[in-house]
Structure formats: C-alpha cells, structure tokens
C-alpha cells in the first residue's frame, strides 16, 4: 500500500479531473474514490481500504486479475525494444498475438488493431459501408443493432445503441442504423417460452429486414450476451435462426465480444457457446485485461478478400488508420494475457466458478422477493431486481443503487446495468476475474444476500 498521504492527490482529482459517468455535485460532500493498488481480486482506495472487485475494474475488463508482473514485464521489455510505429508497418507482438489469437477462433483470419471497443466496432461498421460501396452500389449500407445492446461511445456506435438514455442528448445521430427487438424472455414481448421464444425473437429480426428491404441491409451487430443492457442470455433457438436469417439475406454477422471475449463466459469467445460463424468479431476489454489499451476487429478471409481490390490502384484498400494501433504495448500485454488464461486453466475455472456463482444467485431469487431473475454464463452474471415479483415491475433505480452501495460498504464492488429502457436499470452485474476462488464467490454472494436484507428488508 501507498504509505504516503494522498490528500493532495484527492484534492487535485477533485479540482481537475472530469470523471466518467458521475454527477460531480456528489464530490462536494464525498471524496472522489481513487484506486491506488490492486492484487488478484483486491483493490485498495486512497484510505487504504480493501475491496473485493466483483466486476473486474468496474466494467468487465481485468480478466486475469490485478498485479500481474509477467504482463508488466512483457510490456516493459517490448517498450524498451520498440514502443511504437504506425501506418502500414507491422510489429513483432502484433504479428505474434494475431497468430495466437486466431488459433482460438476457427474460421476467422485477419486482425485489425485499434484501441477501444468503440473503435473496433467503428472499424467493422466502416468495413460494412465500404463493402456496400464496392460491391452493392452503396445500397447494402444499413446496420441493424438490437434494443438494449451497447456498442460504444462514439457518435457512430451510439447510433447503433439500443439504450436510449445513452444517446438522448447527442443527436442528430448517424443515419443508416436500424433497431431490432431484444430477446429477454423474462420481459417477454411474445407469449412463448424457451426455444420457441428464441426463434420468435430472431424472426423479429427478419421482419425488420423485410420492412427495410434486404438489399439495403449490410450487417447485423449483436452482443452474444447483452452486457450493460441487462445481462441478457439469449434463449435456445435464437442463434441458429439468427445465423440462418443472415445467410438467407446475405447479411454480414458482426458479433461484439467487447465484454464476452477472451474467456469471460468460459469459452474463448461468447459466440462459441452457440456454434455461430460470424463475419466480424470485435473485442477489447479482456484482450489485455486493462494492462494496455488494445482492441481488435477480427474478420474472415472472405471479408478481407473483398478489400483486395485492384492491385494497381493505391487507393483501393480499407482506407482507415488508428494512430495508436501502432502501440506495441497492447499486443505484448495481450500475448501474455492469453498465455496466463491458457496455462492457469482459467476457462475451466470460469465454468466451475460461474456455475457456483449462478447457483448462489438463483438461491437468492428463492429467498428475497426483490430478486427476480438470476442470469448468466461463465463469470458473467446478473441479478434482476423487481419491486413486485408477480408483475415483474422493475425495482426503482435508487433502490438498486442502494443495494450496490451497501455491498460497497461491506467491501464488495458490484456493477449495475445502464438505463437500457425507460425504468429499466435494475440488474446487478457480476463479473469477477477469471481467477476467482470458491471462497471469494461465496463471500460475494453472501454480501449481496446481506445487502438485499439490509436495504430491502
Ligand atoms: N461494446 C460493448 C458490448 C461494451 O460493453 C462496450 C463498453 N462498455 C463497448 C462496446 C465500448 O467499449 P469502449 O468503452 O472500450 O469503447
């Protein structure tokens, strides 16, 4: 722990830093939190208080846990040798990580580097648009996205955002993005269940395609499991039908693995739970577990081939660049991150501990009237809170936040979903590091149990 006094740091932060996602008025009466150190699942704040982080850095990122010296060393060695070169040149870790990553993604073939999840998604959107111009006279340019899904913070990705509160003050948005219905059976839009529900929710995508005109739709972008929009695991029957629809109308399937990617659900990628064959896979957070900023837009060779174009025309290529796509720290960290997941058997641990965590959360739904539904896959779980169990009326946001605050007071950092639809910001989010132990899982769910009892009685 830092043994020096951090008062000056806290004051510098309060005076000069514009924090993400927070109403700053609160800092007049309460110090901003500064996280100063981390080890495993533990983090310490400026006052030396230890917390167990059940959301991997607040937003599903630190998959291998804090304090990994081997990643720091890999990055250090790489930076001293060669830190950065951009443009059309490659790098040693960039080549080695791409090769290694693709061994985990049969059917995928090319890795395009960027720095954030939003940017990786923008790359895929731009590729879709360029394909529309190159091959379809500009017509197949529309990109479908799903209600409650999130794909990023830029104006392009916000235009593909199924959470109205995220974009309501940022219009006008980019044209050419069209919403399809969500697939959460707990808040059913059709009077069906299980596999039939999944097929029906996918059919709703086809209805949108037919309404828009299949010759205008270039791609469908979906999270394998919706994250911030409510931890929504699609029902059986959904994905096979989605794939079938995309093939039927020659629509490229873009899977946003920014949260689910790199082990979070117990497989390398979330889509691999469902036997889908995507055309684009985007990833960011867990790629280097937050040890460096890196994201990837991965495509098939068939997509890459569409850009080969006229070898004699110097402008006939994907006309895009990211300055910091040339940083070598990202792929160096990502390579070591992947090795850790493999050598420490973290996919298996994710499956075992994920089952344990989901089991505990399901038990809470039997014990607490407010615990409506527990959902999840691997170490990616949500607990939807309700005001009324019978009607499933959502618990109000203030009460959900009070449960999160009570867990925090008891030393466990949890997340909660965004306002995915009006009045729907009522799901607790859990995504501990993939190294989590049985004792830690038990302690985290025990804390939620106590917090629910304290706050909601
Ligand atoms: N896609 C998904 C599914 C996300 O959850 C996020 C971020 N929470 C993003 C994309 C955007 O990633 P970033 O914040 O790195 O731009």
From TrEMBL:
<dbReference type="InterPro" id="IPR005814">
    <property type="entry name" value="Aminotrans_3"/>
</dbReference>
<dbReference type="InterPro" id="IPR015422">
    <property type="entry name" value="PyrdxlP-dep_Trfase_small"/>
</dbReference>
<dbReference type="GO" id="GO:0030170">
    <property type="term" value="F:pyridoxal phosphate binding"/>
</dbReference>
<dbReference type="InterPro" id="IPR015421">
    <property type="entry name" value="PyrdxlP-dep_Trfase_major"/>
</dbReference>
<dbReference type="InterPro" id="IPR015424">
    <property type="entry name" value="PyrdxlP-dep_Trfase"/>
</dbReference>
<protein>
    <submittedName>
        <fullName>Aminotransferase class III-fold pyridoxal phosphate-dependent enzyme</fullName>
    </submittedName>
</protein>
<keyword id="KW-0663">Pyridoxal phosphate</keyword>
<dbReference type="GO" id="GO:0008483">
    <property type="term" value="F:transaminase activity"/>
</dbReference>
<dbReference type="Pfam" id="PF00202">
    <property type="entry name" value="Aminotran_3"/>
</dbReference>
<dbReference type="InterPro" id="IPR049704">
    <property type="entry name" value="Aminotrans_3_PPA_site"/>
</dbReference>
<keyword id="KW-0808">Transferase</keyword>
<keyword id="KW-0032">Aminotransferase</keyword>
<comment type="similarity">
    <text>Belongs to the class-III pyridoxal-phosphate-dependent aminotransferase family.</text>
</comment>
